[in-house]
Amino acid sequence: MYPFQYHRATSVADAIDAMDAVDDGKFLAGGQTLLASLKLRLARPDRLVDIGGIPELRGVFMDGDHIRIGAMTRHADVAASRHLAEAIPALARLAGGIGDPMVRHRGTLGGSIANADPAADYPAAVLGLGATVITSRRRIAGDAFFRGLFETALAPGEMITAVEFPVPRRAAYVKFRHPASRFALVGVFVADTAAGPRVAVTGAAASVFRLEAFESELARNFTVGALADLSVDPGEFNSDLHASAEYRAQLVGVIARRAVAAALA
Q1: Where is the FAD-binding PCMH-type domain (predicted)?
Q2: Residue from 99, 120, 113, 115 nearest 163 by CA
Q3: Residue 130 within any structural domain of the chain
Q4: In whole angstroms, what is the distance from residue 62 CA to residue 58 CA?
């Protein structure tokens, strides 16, 4: 690794002050991606600001018709939350399917969505449920948060503190996972919300995205059959040694129908 300063923050204000004091700093959450990048010398920050010791960034709380999850809440704690089990079981199951036990006990919600890996699971839930990302500066609608490959709306020095998920009428997440990494080759989050159906896809393209054509059909008829004749253009889909763009496009339709079936079960 390259040399860098290390600061363990005790509060959100302390973390922001420590970050503002350097030109190139990184917040350290669960470290599942950042530490590997440091070891490979793909990242060279001047300072790491460890936010793991800030208690107000952890926890799953019911807040009216929303579930509020602190940015430093581990995947395993999201999966085990009784609030989620009652209000948004699809989100709890999503968290329980991330990586392996070691990843789930270290990785965090905030770290995952800030990294915006194109095959990560949480971005599908943020977009599929119409969540709001809360930062040290503002509130960002989930639809405006993810902007491209590993790119988000976060400004330099801006830190995610929590995410608010509206409670849907019903929802489900299904993914076709890579057998080793357990990342999604294709994952689809389907939700029947107060504002209408939402369908979010991860793993298929450079960034998570919504399928508006699928949403329109489900708004008319929230059944598996409503999606039977729909197809997806693979033009901008990922193509690699794991799956071609055409295969991923085929998977999107299959997985979306499975997600609707799971939501109706």
Answers
A1: 1-170
A2: 113
A3: no
A4: 13
- Which residues, in sequence order, are CB contacts of 69 under 8 Å at separation 6+? 59, 60, 61, 78, 109, 162, 163, 165
Q: Is residue 47 part of a domain?
A: yes
CATH assignment of the domain containing 247: 3.30.390.50
Judge whether 107 lies within some domain.
no
Burial 13-24 (b: 16+ CB within 10 A, else e): ebbbebbeebee
Q: How far apart, in whole angstroms, are the C-alpha atoms of residue 95 and residue 80?
A: 9
Task: Say if 192 falls within a structural domain.
Answer: yes
User: In a 3-state reduction of DSSP, which class is residue 166?
Assistant: strand
246: which 2 tokens? 């055409």
Beta bridge partners of 253: none
Q: Which stretches does DSSP call E strand in 14-78? A: 25-28, 47-50, 60-63, 66-70
- Out of 54, 76, 97, a domain closes at 54
pLDDT recorded at residue 1? 65
**Residue 108 — φ and ψ, nearest 5°?**
-125, 155
Task: Express each pLDDT in 41-71 by its tens digit.
Answer: 888 899 999 999 999 999 999 988 999 999 9
Q: What is the mean pLDDT of residues 217-241?
A: 96
Euclidean distance between CA atoms 150 and 117, whole angstroms: 6
| Domain extent for 19 | 1-54
Interval 12-38: pLDDT, tens = 999 999 999 998 999 999 998 888 888
For the chain, what is the domain count?
2
> Is the pTM of the predicted complex or chain greater than 0.85?
yes
